[in-house]
């Protein structure tokens, strides 16, 4: 595995199927490996599962009132039923605790957690944490870029920016919704949510939302063109390479 590996990860976040398919096609047409964190059952899920370039993981919602379940175990069982083969997780809105993580490792055989956002100048690699004395460690892979946080903060839209080309492995947290909206301000996302339940929103419903100019989509396409495609990796494959296999 290359020391400058790039992990593109996507939080589905109840996006409509056409958005997920659009982003998936952009990746497969270029032969780019990626990891998807799944939130719900939908027809496009089977298409993602059948694509060898993709790893599918879980995106559990631990918040009160979650559609995934009323407690930690129910939420994780819901996710396991969606993606039984899942070995990687990112908690929705990064909401997690030591208990969540211990349960993931001990009861659900999860290997990798990607629920840490660290927009530091130096890229921080994966590390391992034990939540029981004799327990198997959980491999944690921080991401240095998160599209919705970029919208609120640095607003970096140029894929040639040196920020994206520092030495070391780089993990991105992206959302199909923000890519398809080309989001560069949260007003666009708020307009989208006002249209109704996210999974049922059609492409034509976006006609009144301004998606021109630079934004999340233009950055994403720029990254696909800028990086050597041999650098792209799935999360589990990268962590396996770094830590020498699953203990």
What's the quick description here?
With 247 residues, this protein is α/β, with parallel strands linked by helices. It is 33% helix and 13% strand. The chain has a single domain (6-243), classed as TIM Barrel.
Word description of this protein:
33% of the residues lie in helices and 13% in strands. Helix 2 links the parallel strand 2 (34-38) and strand 3. A five-stranded parallel β-sheet has the order 3-2-1-9-8, sandwiched between helices. A four-stranded mixed β-sheet has the order 4-5-7-6, sandwiched between helices. The protein contains nine helices and nine strands. It has 247 residues and is of the alpha/beta class. The model has no long low-confidence stretch (mean pLDDT 94). It has a single domain, classed as Glycoside hydrolase/deacetylase (TIM Barrel), CATH 3.20.20.370. The longest helix has 12 residues, at 17-28.
Keyword list:
13% strand, single chain, TIM Barrel, 9 helices, alpha/beta
C-alpha Rg (nearest Å): 17 Å
CATH superfamily: Glycoside hydrolase/deacetylase
Class by helix and strand content? alpha/beta
In terms of DSSP E residues, the strand content is 5-15%
Low-confidence stretches: none
In the CATH scheme, the class would be: Alpha Beta
Number of helices: 9
Helix content percent band: 25-40%
Q: What is the molecular shape?
A: globular
- Which CATH architecture? Alpha-Beta Barrel
| Total number of domains | 1
